[in-house]
Amino acid sequence: MKKILVIHGPNLNLLGKREPGVYGKTTLPQINSVLKALAAKLKVKLTIKQSNVEGEIVDFIQGAENKFDGILINPAAYTHTSVAIRDAIAVLDIKVVEVHLSNIYSREEFRHKSLISPVASGTILGFGAKSYTLGLAALLDLISAK
Amino acid sequence: MKKILVIHGPNLNLLGKREPGVYGKTTLPQINSVLKALAAKLKVKLTIKQSNVEGEIVDFIQGAENKFDGILINPAAYTHTSVAIRDAIAVLDIKVVEVHLSNIYSREEFRHKSLISPVASGTILGFGAKSYTLGLAALLDLISAK
Amino acid sequence: MKKILVIHGPNLNLLGKREPGVYGKTTLPQINSVLKALAAKLKVKLTIKQSNVEGEIVDFIQGAENKFDGILINPAAYTHTSVAIRDAIAVLDIKVVEVHLSNIYSREEFRHKSLISPVASGTILGFGAKSYTLGLAALLDLISAK
Amino acid sequence: MKKILVIHGPNLNLLGKREPGVYGKTTLPQINSVLKALAAKLKVKLTIKQSNVEGEIVDFIQGAENKFDGILINPAAYTHTSVAIRDAIAVLDIKVVEVHLSNIYSREEFRHKSLISPVASGTILGFGAKSYTLGLAALLDLISAK
Amino acid sequence: MKKILVIHGPNLNLLGKREPGVYGKTTLPQINSVLKALAAKLKVKLTIKQSNVEGEIVDFIQGAENKFDGILINPAAYTHTSVAIRDAIAVLDIKVVEVHLSNIYSREEFRHKSLISPVASGTILGFGAKSYTLGLAALLDLISAK
Amino acid sequence: MKKILVIHGPNLNLLGKREPGVYGKTTLPQINSVLKALAAKLKVKLTIKQSNVEGEIVDFIQGAENKFDGILINPAAYTHTSVAIRDAIAVLDIKVVEVHLSNIYSREEFRHKSLISPVASGTILGFGAKSYTLGLAALLDLISAK
Amino acid sequence: MKKILVIHGPNLNLLGKREPGVYGKTTLPQINSVLKALAAKLKVKLTIKQSNVEGEIVDFIQGAENKFDGILINPAAYTHTSVAIRDAIAVLDIKVVEVHLSNIYSREEFRHKSLISPVASGTILGFGAKSYTLGLAALLDLISAK
Amino acid sequence: MKKILVIHGPNLNLLGKREPGVYGKTTLPQINSVLKALAAKLKVKLTIKQSNVEGEIVDFIQGAENKFDGILINPAAYTHTSVAIRDAIAVLDIKVVEVHLSNIYSREEFRHKSLISPVASGTILGFGAKSYTLGLAALLDLISAK
Amino acid sequence: MKKILVIHGPNLNLLGKREPGVYGKTTLPQINSVLKALAAKLKVKLTIKQSNVEGEIVDFIQGAENKFDGILINPAAYTHTSVAIRDAIAVLDIKVVEVHLSNIYSREEFRHKSLISPVASGTILGFGAKSYTLGLAALLDLISAK
Amino acid sequence: MKKILVIHGPNLNLLGKREPGVYGKTTLPQINSVLKALAAKLKVKLTIKQSNVEGEIVDFIQGAENKFDGILINPAAYTHTSVAIRDAIAVLDIKVVEVHLSNIYSREEFRHKSLISPVASGTILGFGAKSYTLGLAALLDLISAK
Amino acid sequence: MKKILVIHGPNLNLLGKREPGVYGKTTLPQINSVLKALAAKLKVKLTIKQSNVEGEIVDFIQGAENKFDGILINPAAYTHTSVAIRDAIAVLDIKVVEVHLSNIYSREEFRHKSLISPVASGTILGFGAKSYTLGLAALLDLISAK
Amino acid sequence: MKKILVIHGPNLNLLGKREPGVYGKTTLPQINSVLKALAAKLKVKLTIKQSNVEGEIVDFIQGAENKFDGILINPAAYTHTSVAIRDAIAVLDIKVVEVHLSNIYSREEFRHKSLISPVASGTILGFGAKSYTLGLAALLDLISAK
């Protein structure tokens, strides 16, 4: 049974509340439920973490090495500023898929640059909460294909 | 039965041959077969077009308005240079999903800017030929959700 | 009797539908009717063409040399990206007036640069469909003044 | 009877003398005569002002609010540097048309940016003295269309 | 009785010692005393926190939602680098006032850009320790005005 | 009794009318009344001037040297373009506080740079008409502290 | 007998007429004659094409793969804007030599960047019509050396 | 007898007081005395003006055309921002020499660009008050050499 | 006996594993052993810390003030993004030496800027694990020289 | 008999050894032999010089004026940094052809700008050692055509 | 008797010949004669050197320290590229005046930046050969004033 | 016995005198003595050269290939401008260590870019004269480790 680590970046715990025009009304618990349901159906084991602290997310990623088969990450605000998260992903041997709820390329200028995309296996963005389920499916495909 | 238009941009007819290190070895006919199989399974009707001419792609998009329920497009080289394709998509009422085989954000600087992303409903990139099937699934989700 | 070539660039065939907040509700046939009425009144002969293909617009311009007394062009999306259209205009001996429906300088950053303005005899922008009739009048003035 | 305020920016009082290769040989009094003749024909009342002082032009614009139906302005050198004139126009309820004698986009780099265009109803440039009469006609069209 | 959360960003615990030429000689406990005295006089309840960790400051802000009527924040070094703090503030319903001891716009180039200002209700900078008391007064004004 | 010079920059005489969404509905006379009331309470003497002319504002500032104890200035549009006002402030021995009604850092790009901030004693921005009263209080604090 | 494809980009059909100060007075048929004479002498077979359409040039290049031993291309205006032509060349196994009549690096700023040079085997520029014969000779050298 | 117009730009009336570390201790009247003494010796007639208003300086320059043989100007703060003064000088037939007290290229970044230098006959900078006398001598040389 | 604090930044705990082509095969424990051996030989006391959290590194630095004679720091990813670590170092009275395993100036563009170098006493980079021992020796020299 | 000066810039004396992946394995003496053989065949007299010193290359160029009919130069590293060599070429009356072994436009960013190209008669790059023989032939063509 | 070192930079030995439209027809020997005549009149001893080699000019400057009272330098092309000449001047105790024949700020973009101006005592530019005599006079003034 | 070449770049012969606030008071002979003493202790043979001429430094480096085991270089001003020195180092097979007395990243903007660092084995900067001895030790370590 495959094991997947899901990492939600800063402020995603507020989903559903935060600028619904941009992010939709789905809350993080709702996204997690949908992900778990899909995981059950696909027979994979999910571990889900959220943190507002850049270094904790680095810790999550480092700790995944021999315990998980892949990481599904929405780095949120740290997408644009964190070289540390990028370096942590670059050193991993397991697959990492990056997801974003909104289309970061149609928002403020400073959100147009992703430090994470160049080291992720693939990126899915702009589908709202659906980005996560698409991402999970894509990640499993990548793992099987290895 | 939903109708989907798939548009392959310039040089994609050479897939499998073109820089396999970057794009993989799958050919365009193979991608189309996989897409058709998935379409059959999902009970949608696919129309597939490829062109090297920017203006023809604009024509394809304009012509899709009342004939298709959604567009799956890999604008390839025109991703970075075509305001005309962007404008054609912006005026459409149907959903458009953008896909890329490679991670355009880890290649040459001039490929880091997508003129298409800000007007697409969502973007999927970096999963190789898999980007297309993920994109087709995502597009159908968007259409059902409307 | 003077002969004028009117060239509508990409996506202008969708006018009236496309982002009416930006471009107004007038359709391209309506604009053409108004232009023809004005032409009849001013006793000039109009030929009107539209294309979504950059190279076809270059062909139209090249073909105008000995057949027309002036060109009225709305290069639309190619305003910002086409060195080829610029070069075709630069080599012409006849007058060229550039028009835009919207004020391109109050839209997205990438629309602020016109490759065509430096080689046009004059530019009229921001008056909606009226830009065309102002442009036709201005073009005829330029031709008479030669 | 409509009332229009014409504002000539800095150094335009020297027209006809100043770099005739760029601006033509027509003098400001000649332009004013032609404008007055056209105004008489169109049955509008013109008030014409010129100033070299940025703040005086702001004063002219502010004073126009309830006294005029529209403004025809050639901001000349202040086109590229005056946020104050831009702000004065932005707050007006009446229509403002911006004109330039020369094609500012084919001159020095620092003349390529217009702070005024984004707040003007429309812009006409590059037709020499003719830009003014085209502008007056366009302005009256805009006023009637309101 | 209104409740206000005061957040001091990284290195502010060293105030009075850190480059006194730039920040003055007042220590953080002294600033806190003055703030508390003012709070007592204005009959508001202050809670004061300091952290060097970006994510903890995000936690403080998220936790303030239903517990406080406003936030007074000096984001210090994170002013210029933290999209995460910006996002946390953007989602809040309560008022946030940003203060700085020094004039960040007359220091090093990388301190000239504030990611926080665009999402704060107002900003006060350059008055030394006084910026805090001015900020507290301004924040209470904003809260009363709501 | 302290004497304070209040300087309102270009277009501020139109306050209350000008883009109320951005600047609020308070008029300049209303702001002046509130300032005078506060001044009366604080026992300071106010002199209030407004000009649309950059050079006149330079004159006001130069003339303040031995006649006033401080200047409260909202340079408005000249904030972003006037090296002359900056130089006039830099040479003064008395304190200068800069205020802005709106948050200039969340508006157009060209309003993000203040030439005045680096030479002002402090800056207050984004509190609407309240910025002035906060500024007057801050200025008096600075004067007393000298 | 070696087979070479010569591709002339947009507006080159107007050579001899177009800005003779920049491009010389030689016409395209004259250049083609000289090329054919040289080809006859060198015993190679030339096929010569010209197009104003970016996508057609992509088609020419793609079609050359198994039919020609090398390509001699003057991409003209598309040199500076076409990622599609670049991608088509990058995937070819045969040699490609890029030529320009004028010295593109001493003309307008936007002509200083060649998207084609990094994927061409070599580049020859600034020798007028002579660039073509030098280019043909160089291309044959490259082919023999393979 | 030659007639020379000397124009002092904004804030120069404060010389001797303003940042003596940068500009020296000489006052403007002292500079004027030295200039007059030199003028007397060289048998030229000086007219000296100072203004803080950009447009007035434009007026001075325009008025000089047939009344003076040359202009000696220190545009001060307007050096870096005034297209209007640049245009006024460009249209003059008489010689203009630009002087600066300080070395503007070793001060703040925004003072490194002179809009005036490209239209002046020559520029002298960095010699303190001496720049004026050197400039007057140089201007007279230029006038004699005509 | 001198006391030195060694701080390893984010992801350095993975050394030896992480991109060995860039960082070499030495692990962090091995580096620490070598450092301790050298420390023993030089008779200094080492305290070694590692953290992935920016704010914890700020805490380490703040806590060093009266307890250590110098800091040897490899800020890793935070080198390029942390104003907070820079500010913490700037306020210290003790010497700080910055080391990097790889030559950051020959890697990705975003690693070419060090926010730390300007506040460090000296920097050593590119010698692999050897950078640390060179750095420790250099730090002790600086401390003795005080 | 025509006389040609060949100038090899800095480090070209190391050819064949220096990064053979970039420059090929041919040595400078081998290139010189081939050039001499070609010269003998074409009946021109070659003088060949190499220097690592920018100013010596300026001397070579200045000295060529009345002694040579043309210069064939590979400015190597000075291509990108030497205004002095550019100025020396600009003043020459004889023809200058610039050659490069590698395609400088597909190497590091700082090699993309040639200060020499705008003043050379033509440029040949990317053909390895062959660039020299193509350049010599092209130079002789230019000389004959004069 | 004061001793002055005059340094002419690269290519100035060609004066009179080199682009006379830009630099005038005066030759370097003529300039030197005029300088010597002025020196004789002012009773100073001139030593005049010219070099095309950056490092030799550094040697000249270093050697001037105790042998000359001032340096008059036209760094020509090295003005824009030589940090080494800048550093040599910065360390000198004697006065240095920089002169240019042409107005470097109205020529190519890359000539707009002077690395020398910030370390020179003063700069004179645009007066042709006259710049030298003005410079010599200015230098002597500076020396006397010391 | 290992042989090391020490190269001092331009103006370093003036050390001790040149801006002692930046570079310290140690002279170059003193640095050389310390280096020689260390070399004697470490039993290596030093050869020491200094030049102000870029091309001579290129010569030194080229000449080191088979005669020395390593190079210790302080390129001084040429650090920021010399592609030629960079190319000479890139082709060497022996180890090169770059040293700087001052912290170049905390000085003027144009000193922040090192063209040499990317091709050096390692870089040591900011330790004053100590940078050399640290550099010599580091170089010997590198040589032994080979």
> What's the CATH superfamily of chain A, by name?
Dehydroquinase, class II
Average of per-residue pLDDT values of chain A: 93
> How would you describe the shape of chain A?
globular
Structural class assignment of chain A:
alpha/beta
Separation of the first and last Cα atoms of chain A:
15 Å
Main sheet makeup of chain A: 5 strands, parallel
How would you write the strand order of the largest sheet of chain A?
Answer: 2-1-3-4-5
Q: According to CATH, what is the topology of chain A? A: Rossmann fold
Keywords:
alpha/beta, 5-stranded parallel beta sheet, 20% strand, 146 residues, 5 strands, homododecamer, Rossmann fold
What is the structure about, briefly put?
12 copies of one chain form a homododecamer. With 146 residues, chain A is α/β, with parallel strands linked by helices. The first copy, chain A, has a 5-stranded parallel sheet with strand order 2-1-3-4-5, with helices on both faces.
Summarize the structure in words.
- The structure is a homododecamer of 146-residue chains.
- By secondary structure, chain A is of the alpha/beta class.
- Chain A has one domain: Dehydroquinase, class II (Rossmann fold, 3-Layer(aba) Sandwich).
- Chain A has helices spanning 20-23, 28-42, 54-63, 83-91, 130-145; strands at residues 2-8, 44-50, 70-74, 95-100, 122-125.
- In chain A, helix 3 (54-63) runs parallel beside helix 4.
- Chain A is globular, with a radius of gyration of 14 Å.
List the helices and strands and how they pair.
The structure is a homododecamer of 146-residue chains.
Chain A: E1 2-8, H1 20-23, H2 28-42, E2 44-50, H3 54-63, E3 70-74, H4 83-91, E4 95-100, E5 122-125, H5 130-145
Parallel strand pairs in A: 1-2, 1-3, 3-4, 4-5
